[in-house]
């Protein structure tokens, strides 16, 4: 059994703050700053360029990839780190489309995170081969899984509401139709159990600054099913995806495994912070995280609905159909969230009317949930949110 009091002690939470935004940016592990300082001073400072060998910087993308792989049901050697999530979406989709040259339909959904759709739209326009991107309502996705489908590209857990797809069932449906499947795990990795190997997913991508606590700008990851990794073309043929980068061949020859999805020089300082953050997951099983997450989410829903009847639950009520976040709708949701933040309860807002709360069991407990409910109820009862300063929109919501 996990000692969640012990895991909470690993993180820095500012005094007076209840942090319910780990689904957007995870809290900082207490050892992260010291590790970053050590890397900068002792590795970069003293080793200089020797750090690529002596500090094993060159191996870091696969080494950290293995740490992430354990949490998403992937085998060692099938996940590599680097670049941004947008880049990894591009790589996965470009490779997937080449695997199905006779099919022209890409299906996502209109609740997907916009950058995934922007990347897909931009890619198929650049290819100019007659591909079509279809974005039905989430509940209508399955009706478009047929013999015309080239690639099904879905985000496992919806960023606005927390709605969660049945990954295993939908992957099988797409495979039975002869399609390739890409899963975006931005709101899944470290939040809910995932079994990429078990469901035979083709590709998966995700970020590490949310539930994995890698810090702002932490590198993304990409998973490629082992049988594909030996043959897919990486599309972005960067030198670190080469089979022998330091041979400096003029002809590109991809690495024989997922390393072919590496592009350019990895962000070593940021990846070092992520590697340190991943130590919090030592001995942690996702099944235990999931059980605790459901408990916290159910407690929050019950408390808010009992004290704030003017708020409408936007997340699925069935815990088995949602991730580790709870969202409520309210016409003036942005102002409500600003009032909450002013009182030390940090969540976030997603247009047009959703106030969103992430539940990260590594550092959120029952007392945090009770405190957040109490403060939210006071704000709603007194209409404290209806002040001019809380209606003023910031650049980041």
Question: How would you sum up this structure in a few lines?
Answer:
With 397 residues, the chain is α/β, with parallel strands linked by helices. 37% of the residues lie in helices and 13% in strands. Helix 11 packs parallel to helix 13.
Secondary-structure topology with pairs:
Elements: H1 4-8, E1 11-12, E2 18-19, E3 28-29, H2 32-47, H3 51-54, H4 60-71, E4 79-81, H5 85-99, E5 105-107, H6 114-127, E6 132-134, E7 149-155, H7 167-176, E8 180-184, H8 196-199, E9 203-206, E10 221-224, H9 226-229, H10 268-277, H11 286-307, E11 312-313, E12 325-329, H12 333-342, E13 345-346, E14 348-350, E15 354-358, H13 366-382, H14 388-391
Parallel strand pairs: 2-13, 5-6, 5-7, 7-8, 8-9
Antiparallel strand pairs: 1-3, 4-10, 9-10, 11-12, 12-15, 14-15
Helix pairs in contact: 2-10, 4-10, 5-6, 11-13
């Amino acid at each position: 059994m996990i000692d969640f009091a012990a895991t909470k002690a690993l993180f820095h939470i500012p005094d007076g703050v209840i942090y319910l935004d780990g689904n957007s940016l995870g809290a900082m592990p207490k050892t992260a700053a010291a590790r970053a300082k050590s890397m900068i001073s002792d590795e970069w400072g003293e080793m200089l360029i020797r750090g690529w060998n002596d500090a094993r910087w060159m191996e870091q993308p696969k080494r950290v990839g293995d740490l992430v792989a354990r949490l998403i049901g992937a085998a060692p050697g099938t996940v590599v780190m680097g670049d941004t999530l947008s880049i990894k979406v591009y790589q996965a989709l470009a490779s997937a489309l080449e695997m199905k040259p006779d099919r022209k339909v890409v299906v996502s959904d209109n609740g997907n995170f916009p950058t995934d759709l922007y990347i897909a739209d931009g890619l198929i326009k650049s290819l100019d081969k007659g591909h079509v991107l279809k974005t039905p309502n989430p509940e209508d996705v399955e009706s478009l899984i047929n013999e015309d489908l080239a690639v099904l590209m879905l985000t496992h857990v919806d960023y606005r509401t927390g709605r969660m797809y049945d990954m295993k069932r939908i992957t099988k449906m797409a495979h039975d139709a002869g399609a390739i499947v890409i899963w975006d795990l931005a709101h899944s990795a470290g939040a809910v159990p995932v079994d990429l190997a078990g469901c035979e997913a083709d590709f998966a991508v995700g970020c590490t600054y949310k539930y994995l606590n890698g810090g702002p700008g932490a590198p993304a990851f990409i998973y490629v099913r082992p049988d594909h990794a030996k043959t897919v073309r990486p599309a972005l043929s960067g030198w670190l995806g080469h089979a022998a980068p330091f041979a400096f061949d003029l002809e590109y020859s991809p690495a024989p495994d997922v390393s072919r999805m590496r592009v350019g020089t990895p962000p070593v300082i940021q990846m070092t912070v992520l590697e340190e953050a991943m130590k919090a997951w030592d001995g942690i099983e996702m099944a235990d995280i999931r059980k605790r997450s459901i408990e916290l989410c159910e407690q929050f829903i019950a408390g808010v609905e009992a004290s704030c009847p003017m708020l409408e639950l936007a997340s699925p009520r069935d815990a088995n159909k949602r991730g580790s976040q709870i969202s409520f709708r309210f016409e003036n949701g942005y102002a409500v969230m600003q009032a909450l933040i002013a009182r030390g309860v940090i969540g976030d807002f997603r247009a047009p009317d959703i106030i969103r709360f992430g539940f990260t069991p590594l550092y959120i407990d029952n007392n945090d949930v009770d405190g957040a409910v109490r403060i939210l109820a006071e704000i709603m009862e007194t209409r404290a949110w209806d002040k001019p300063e809380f209606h003023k929109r910031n650049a980041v919501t």
